[in-house]
User: What shape does this take?
Amino acid sequence: MTAPRFDTILITGAAGRLGTQLRRGLAPLARHLRLTDRVAIADLQPNESAHIAELADEAAMRALCEGVDAIVHFGGAPMERPWEEVLNSSIRGSYHIYEGARKAGVKRVVYASSVHAIGYHRLEDQIDAHSPHRPDGLYGLSKCFVEDLGRLYWDKFGIETVALRIFSSFPEPADRRMLWSWLSFEDCIRLVTAALTAPRVGFTVSFGMSDNSVKPVDNRLANHLGYHPQDSAEPFRAGVEARTPMPDPKAPAVQCLGGWFVDLGHPDDEAAK
Amino acid sequence: MTAPRFDTILITGAAGRLGTQLRRGLAPLARHLRLTDRVAIADLQPNESAHIAELADEAAMRALCEGVDAIVHFGGAPMERPWEEVLNSSIRGSYHIYEGARKAGVKRVVYASSVHAIGYHRLEDQIDAHSPHRPDGLYGLSKCFVEDLGRLYWDKFGIETVALRIFSSFPEPADRRMLWSWLSFEDCIRLVTAALTAPRVGFTVSFGMSDNSVKPVDNRLANHLGYHPQDSAEPFRAGVEARTPMPDPKAPAVQCLGGWFVDLGHPDDEAAK
Amino acid sequence: MTAPRFDTILITGAAGRLGTQLRRGLAPLARHLRLTDRVAIADLQPNESAHIAELADEAAMRALCEGVDAIVHFGGAPMERPWEEVLNSSIRGSYHIYEGARKAGVKRVVYASSVHAIGYHRLEDQIDAHSPHRPDGLYGLSKCFVEDLGRLYWDKFGIETVALRIFSSFPEPADRRMLWSWLSFEDCIRLVTAALTAPRVGFTVSFGMSDNSVKPVDNRLANHLGYHPQDSAEPFRAGVEARTPMPDPKAPAVQCLGGWFVDLGHPDDEAAK
Amino acid sequence: MTAPRFDTILITGAAGRLGTQLRRGLAPLARHLRLTDRVAIADLQPNESAHIAELADEAAMRALCEGVDAIVHFGGAPMERPWEEVLNSSIRGSYHIYEGARKAGVKRVVYASSVHAIGYHRLEDQIDAHSPHRPDGLYGLSKCFVEDLGRLYWDKFGIETVALRIFSSFPEPADRRMLWSWLSFEDCIRLVTAALTAPRVGFTVSFGMSDNSVKPVDNRLANHLGYHPQDSAEPFRAGVEARTPMPDPKAPAVQCLGGWFVDLGHPDDEAAK
Amino acid sequence: MTAPRFDTILITGAAGRLGTQLRRGLAPLARHLRLTDRVAIADLQPNESAHIAELADEAAMRALCEGVDAIVHFGGAPMERPWEEVLNSSIRGSYHIYEGARKAGVKRVVYASSVHAIGYHRLEDQIDAHSPHRPDGLYGLSKCFVEDLGRLYWDKFGIETVALRIFSSFPEPADRRMLWSWLSFEDCIRLVTAALTAPRVGFTVSFGMSDNSVKPVDNRLANHLGYHPQDSAEPFRAGVEARTPMPDPKAPAVQCLGGWFVDLGHPDDEAAK
Amino acid sequence: MTAPRFDTILITGAAGRLGTQLRRGLAPLARHLRLTDRVAIADLQPNESAHIAELADEAAMRALCEGVDAIVHFGGAPMERPWEEVLNSSIRGSYHIYEGARKAGVKRVVYASSVHAIGYHRLEDQIDAHSPHRPDGLYGLSKCFVEDLGRLYWDKFGIETVALRIFSSFPEPADRRMLWSWLSFEDCIRLVTAALTAPRVGFTVSFGMSDNSVKPVDNRLANHLGYHPQDSAEPFRAGVEARTPMPDPKAPAVQCLGGWFVDLGHPDDEAAK
Assistant: This one.
């Protein structure tokens, strides 16, 4: 790719762990990156503009969508949080993004869904993108909601969505589960790039993992994206195994795709403590 | 069934079109029916208690769930409505119901989902309960959300849910589409009764139609409910056809399960007019 | 159904075994039946007009399609025949019919396909309408061709087709195979009526059998037609079994849906004898 | 059916609960019933001959298979038993039957498999005959073995088998599970009759239940047998429910097809007590 | 492969774009290549013989099939053409080839089917070889016909066929669609070689594409061919994208596998202009 | 992997062709290998202990299971053998192993199942691990039995099993079938290692082949094992093809996965000669 394909891409959650990587990784794709987050965004580059705003702020979100060619929607609560926060940032916030896209004529949204939208399925079930939702918490529930929102906006309003069910995107695998769930930052960039540039996506769901040895899901239904991971958790295996005990295959957190999320209690109970 | 199976059943949306029928139809199943709606409930019977409350009122909903054996959740926005109303009544309200059920130890919820959760699928696709969500509006989107909510509360908290994707439940078929989508009031009662009394449901999705001649979906995945419709739209066919024109098979509202919902614009645009 | 739904229906093969039945059976559906066959049509009724013509006569077929609302295409070689005859009557002839429909704006075609389009599948495979073609002779091959032709004319030109894979439609079951393959004349009429009047068919394939006890295929993918057979081969069982030997379950003609067609040699070899 | 279809049918387990019913029910199908069991068979009829023998007695079994047209193999351990008994009666014994069939040229075997061959599947999974084996004990394990044995003898030696996965065949439903698992004696006879007389079965697996309201499995893959149950557990529902408590939907014995078999410990442990 | 596997291979369409490549690529597989086309074949090599003939010439085709070990059937109308031409060259012509193969005892045919046999399926549907035919024109319709013809000749006459649904085989990718549909000439040779030499094919359908990044179909059902593409359209991406505009994902020609063929009108209309 | 993951692994059949390879290959995984076979085990290493015993010796097997972390069960009749031998070594013997595992609290068993458990499926059917059993002899039948035994011990007793359906594991491909069925010894070691170390297997079935060009089955349902073959039969192709004739694609031994096993008669007949 020599010339940028897009004039302006909007990135939500741009100050987050993945948002920060995407700023670097997506820069070649667009002349301009419009960034937004609820907190300040560091190290702004010449090709970037930054806008601090809450996703729950409908007017702000609509304004941010004006004039963009594509939206990379990685904002919202980044983990299991109390209901009110999930509701406002992820559910209402994502609605504001899609409404912004609709009103501004944006053609494609790439959304950071999550393994936690299907966290109660088991590894040996080898699910694919047509398997039913099985969220493992309020966080995952909000991811299901936004996937359905994307489906609606494609069927009714012709806005394409790629929902990326990201497994575990961290600098390196931090525990034994990440030996199969890890998505390297570079592969995350490859995945978002593929989702932005594939010729036709309609509404497509793709799992997001690196080329790890153990593969717990079947991603063939997203082969039209052209995503080809190039990293693997294998180089980290010895280290991870040396510092963590062998897992119990019967523990819910080992049998389920969602890992320890399935062991979490209700976040409102936690918040009430 | 000679003796009531339940002590108390909570019915939400009890003043609505279907809620009113369920009061009559479910009476033999429980010693007591606890009714709630946002508006007054007429003709209260000795076996009933009525509670006017908004679903969005969390404390009220929690109180209503105390001491009930099962919840028949038919409340929420009854059709396509602006986002804020859908969000508050259907999304937030249903969350309050499930939280109420969880805190009060209620074991089963029967939920009025809708054909509009899968409205963009076509008749000739003959989908079943495992086919992906394809909502046809904000109303359907909220139905998808509550189905996923029920799935979560089963997987994580052990509360069973039957999500009934009701097609068109009216006194009689009002148009040509209802010749295949109609659910008679008596069959609706049979369906809710089956969902309440089946020995094991886990999380089950069932389509809700009478035994009409044209069958546009495959309901075999709900055969463990023991629902057997006994009514049919056929006796109404001649009348309906006499007063309505032949449909155009290529019109979206004819090809899609959701009918004319797929032709609706965005409800917020409508509301803004 | 009190009033005719159609003004004019064109029936091809109208002098044939089934065409003769359809004249009687479809009469209530249309004000006028336009009949065509390569041979004379007996006992013309006031609501009928007859036109002797070869399907291979393109100009004649186009003229016959003018001004009709639906086509019931039952013409063409009625059994295994030499290639040139199959090619001219069934392949070229059916092309003429679809071209006639396209030029005249006819909206729906009901086509007499056959079990012989899938004759090499076995009973215990319980195939459905999505299973691949497996023709058992040139006759079946031409049926596959016309099914694909109908699929093309739906996808490209918006003409709906119901392809009826008729098993064995005779006055009564004549052999042991027909105890499961029989389609009574009355059920054949019900099936064509359903195919003509279903609200939406797109391109639909339906198997055509009566409500026989042994059911060798799964017809659920055509449930939107609203076809409900009311006859059965069972009353004929004792008679058939008394006069025919028990079949060998390992004989190809017993194991395959196509029956004795799978034992036939090549018709051109037969013709050359 | 006026004349018997078979000269001689061999029934194993003929003194058992179901064997006794089959003697009566299958009498019209054959001129002669050859009966065998390990215990004495009461009330021998003129059309019957009785042979006391162990299934583990290879020579006896081979002799019994000589000159029979079909075998109805209902013998073997009738419930969870210690390994040695299961091994000898069900595994070795069934091998003797199939070897007897092979050497004597018997063309079809109808085998009493069991729900316990797939007992760990859940009701809401709505499995069909292609779903993998999931035995719930040694009894079920032996049923899986004999199904595979039948598959082998069909593929390799051309002997047809219908494996009937009988759920609960008793005089009447004895507990709440039997409200969905019950197979009446008359329906059991209908099922075996269908399996014996269907024109082509190859190797077919059929679930065996009456026409109960709650249907926990999908039997469509056996539709070529022509089995149509005519009884139902519904008339017994009120009585059963009155004398048994409501089940806990989360109990393994309620969620699994195998019922209380899944709660059993290892039979060898029990035997050692 | 050191020694030729075949004595003589017949190649139809040998003067065409792909036929020319196959002459070179298949030379190591056979001692002799018998070539045929309707036009003159240039640069004849010592291992080749050339025969100018129309596929519609039955006698010529039969003579050409005498004494060959395998047929690589790439002849027939190479694109959308008027009906009479498609009928004569592709439908009648292919029938002549299969009849020739049958009479001469040829054991395997490798047929150049096309993406246009399934052109109306969409990229995101990720179809496989069992998905139904959806031709996108008369050209694709004739490909469907020949696939069914091959299926018949396998089931009935034991002649194996591999139908290769070639996507876009050109010297290099010429437009954006070819970035996913391209089949390099070398990969085309690999594919035909695999189809000729696989130990067992029965009737197998394989998609024909290079190892491009975006993969719009699932070819796993042809894994027994042993085809492993080694080329990719990626090196051509920058050039293609620089000289062609971004596609509209909602345009039929972008959403459908068949590309711009789905936008074509009826070829007879075109011819009539 | 730097440190051994296991203290002690039990290997049955340790003197056999594959057992010998596994002793070498699994050495890095465990501090100690406990070996057993019915015959003497050569070249014992310091990390090994050897125990000569019959699998049919229940007490011996139970003792051997004491104190081991995992069992690699490769013992039992290694090919088609008379019934009594299959029964005693493979069926009874494997039962003893699983009972030993249960009593000793062993957590995982890796079992050498075989292609012969599914030998009657055809290459072009591209079966996966959920396809039904189709054993091709008594040997394969015993493999089916032990798979079901493993399934039971997982569902009921929580012992994980990986059943490896090994195709042809020999020093090098010996015939044309092995060009697709070959599993190199090194890949066999990789496969067993993956099965022992995968984080979660429950009950998993995996096919066992090297990365050969022709792939006759679909192994995607075992992707959570992390098995990645690194060898291929291709380097042996020229040699094998030079010394063996071309196969007949219609021969049962060519069309079926089980190869020449499907041509074998009954082993008891052979033994009786």
